[in-house]
Amino acid sequence: AKKEKPQETTAEAPQQVVLRLAETHPPDYPTTKGDYKFAELVKERTNGRIVIEVYPSSQLGEEKAVIEQVQFGSIDLTRVSIAPVGAFVPILNALQLPYLYRDSDHMWKVLKGDIGKELLKSVEDAGFIGFGWFEAGARSFYTKKPVRTPDDLKGMKIRVMENDLMVAMVNALGGVATPMPYGEVYSALQTGVIDGAENNWPSYYTSGHYEVAKYYTLDEHLRVPEIIIGSKISLSQKLTPEEIEILKQAAWHAIEYQREQWAAYEKVAEEKVRAAGNTIIPVEDKSAWQARMKDLYAKQSPEIQEIVRRIQEVQ
Amino acid sequence: MKHVIKILNLLYIVTLFLAKILFALMVLIIFTNVVLRYVFNSGLRWSEEVSLVFLVWFAFISIALGVKQNLHIGLHLVNEESLPPLVNRVLHILDYAAKGVVGVIMMVYGRILIVFTLRSILPATHWPAGILYLILPIAGFFITAESLMALLGIPTDQEAVESVLEGRMTIREYLQGVFHA
Amino acid sequence: MPDTGIATFLLLGTFLVLIILRVSISFALALAAIVTGIYLKVPLMSVVQQMVHGIKSFSLLAIPFFILAGELMGQGGISKRLIKFSNLIVGRLPGGLAQVNILASMFFGGISGSAVADISSIGTILIPMMKENKYDEDFSVAITVTSACQGIIIPPSHNMIIFSLAAGGVSIGRLFLGGYLPGVILGLALMIITHFISIKRGYPRERWYSFREALAITGEAFMGLMTAVIIIVGVVSGVFTATESSAVAVVWAFVVTFFVYREIPLRKFPRILYSSLKTLAMVMALIASASAFGWFMAYLRIPAKATELLLSITTSKVLLLLLINVLLLLLGMIMDMAPLILITTPILYPVVVDTLGMSPIQFGVMLVLNLAIGLTTPPVGSALFVGCAVGKIPIEKVVRTMFPLWLVMVTVLLLVTFFPPLTTTLPGIFMP
Ligand code: NA
Ligand code: NA
């Protein structure tokens, strides 16, 4: 029954490779748009041979499960926050330390420089290939009373994610860390069960928390970038080393586009919050905040402390 | 063979005892957490993580229980009595073959999964993430063993085990009953 | 590269063939996932990992707890007290016991999430009682079976939690609230039709109670009904999550059963844990394997293809919703509720919610009510089976009496489908 000549097609164009990229955010989110850009660039640069299909909205599972699947090769690529990857690659936890950077430019200098490249490489020991970083904004405190200095936080109950580091950070600032599921924060703020919480501009706005916590103190304590990682097992089977290199460069180029998308997205939220009449408190000098993190930094492993030292040296 | 079945059943009874304990503990953990939050304004940071590990364990033990006690129903589009015995026999074999295959996959790939996740940790308790999957080979083992017995037509003291589980018979009575018989 | 068309065919085909061959549904789902995984060369760790992750959900924890609370109250004697309490309220109507049956199910529904539990506790008491009092046995069974379905849409409802999981985290509190009005309306509609049937067939009324009796009856029933109050007030006020409220409800039910009602001794508790564990076996197996199956559906983008297919038939919202409801009713006739929720939600959600714009709450209530009707129909209907077993009559004899009751249920279903305020008003007021 084999009438066709199977060689015919393969001789002209090499067989197409489909890679699946798992994303937790919805399709119109800036990060997802970054994924699509990455896919577009890869397709262009391989003349259509490598097709990356993006699965948004956690279709292929929640972050932690997806990371495991990337590890054993069921999913080829994923865009995730650094936080869950830290459980597999401890050195990445360095990037989750509070008040690590002076500002956004500082972070991107670090990520695009040697340190960033080293850290991308570091995921390989855990069975991943690191492709690039995405912007996820900075988290700041929003409260029911104005907070201008760390002293103002004293005794305030601040909701944090269920995460040792965040609890330690808020406590070090003098607040009372109150871990609680995200969905309960609105009513907890409303009823005064907590005095504040922390998040980035877009979440502050879309969650509606800005309606019940009117003061936003831009201390920018946390800047945790997103990371695109791939599966070492599956990609080394499906792609040549040259092609993996093409993917890496495409991811690197998608970063700029994703950062623009993020900035635009953040700006919309910021304008809405300002229009609502909320008090935005800028923090010009972060040294008073950062000073309180001394013990927290000192508790980190020597490897992490070394990375931190190098990050702080970057001008 | 009789002794093998005894040992299997004993392991099985112990596992189910564990499930009951986990069940009660889960209630206790969540309840305590609520009380702590509203009365003492604090909480157990590990409560969610630990309850979820317990839930997974508890659920997979219940799945194995379902195979043992034949609780997993299928579609009965036609009345069993109206089919020829041979057809019923074949369908019965197919059902347990399917359960057996799933049981084997749970054992084999559950083990690989544990090895893969050995290095990562759960954030609140710092338990190895593999603990979540540890129940896979265990439940898989019981499912496979039970399916195999059913396929081979070996009786497994079903009713005696049920009596023990329902508290109508002690483990000792069960063991003595068999070894003296 | 493996072909996604063949893989889709393998996934759905293996599942269909296996369930037709009477393989247990949960194992058919898992095996279909395994076969597809082998074809797609996806490491099979994915299958078992997804099974675990399907279970590993904090909201899922509420299901064992609701079942345990229901089991405690059921074995502890709540049904008897609810029946007495209902008798106090509606016993004097024509066909008093039938009305009691409906009202008691409404109350019981506030504690248990399961129609079968309702029939085996309330039906076991009321069906023999009704027969003794000259009610036709077909009617006694039919009204028990139909009214038991209220327990599924009146919160708490573990099927709503299953929907919430399958839909990717729709608020359980809002779903619960959404189920209230349709549940109560279904109950009232059943009471009205029962009223007319009872007058026509000359069913008796029940006796009066003295004030002192009434007080005692109300007091005892109230202790049990507090379980329902704890759950609802807890979830709606945001004081507890659904999971927390279910744990508090277990503790409350535990105290009421062993220290207030005291019909069963404390040493029966392990046995109650065990019987809950048995009830859970099937649900847990389904959730685990449907999660692995669902992962491959997502991987193969089957929901998107199904949306395309449905929209290619018609783009009229009314027609599509009718079509979907008919499809679900047909599926519900042959399959049980939990597996259908788990399998159809990921497929239908993109069409009904994302494309047709129905609110997730309304869709959830519609789906659950629709499949609840399926529990009362032949050839496969667990509520009908248990009801007929309790009433000791063959299914054929009940079916004719069921027709007017099915009509009532389908009417409420249509109301839920085409009249959004029915499901969205309460969540809008209490959990905006
Ligand atoms: Na209910
Ligand atoms: Na049915």
UniProtKB/TrEMBL annotation, chain B:
The keyword Transmembrane helix applies. It comes from the Bacteria. The chain crosses the membrane at residues 7-30, 50-67, 96-118, 130-154. It is a multi-pass membrane protein. Its main location: membrane. One of its GO terms (molecular function) is transmembrane transporter activity. It is found in: Cell inner membrane. GO terms for biological process: C4-dicarboxylate transport. GO terms for cellular component: plasma membrane. Belongs to the TRAP transporter small permease family. This is Tripartite ATP-independent periplasmic transporter DctQ component. It comes from Winmispira thermophila (strain ATCC 700085 / DSM 6578 / Z-1203) (Spirochaeta thermophila).
UniProtKB/TrEMBL annotation, chain C:
Residues 12-421 form the TRAP C4-dicarboxylate transport system permease DctM subunit domain. Its main location: membrane. The chain crosses the membrane at residues 6-39, 60-78, 98-127, 139-157, 177-199, 220-240, 246-264, 276-297, 309-331, 338-357, 363-391, 403-422. It is a multi-pass membrane protein. Keywords: Cell inner membrane, Cell membrane, Membrane, Transmembrane, Transmembrane helix. InterPro entries: DctM (IPR010656), TRAP_DctM (IPR004681). GO terms for molecular function: transmembrane transporter activity. GO terms for cellular component: plasma membrane. This is TRAP dicarboxylate transporter, DctM subunit.
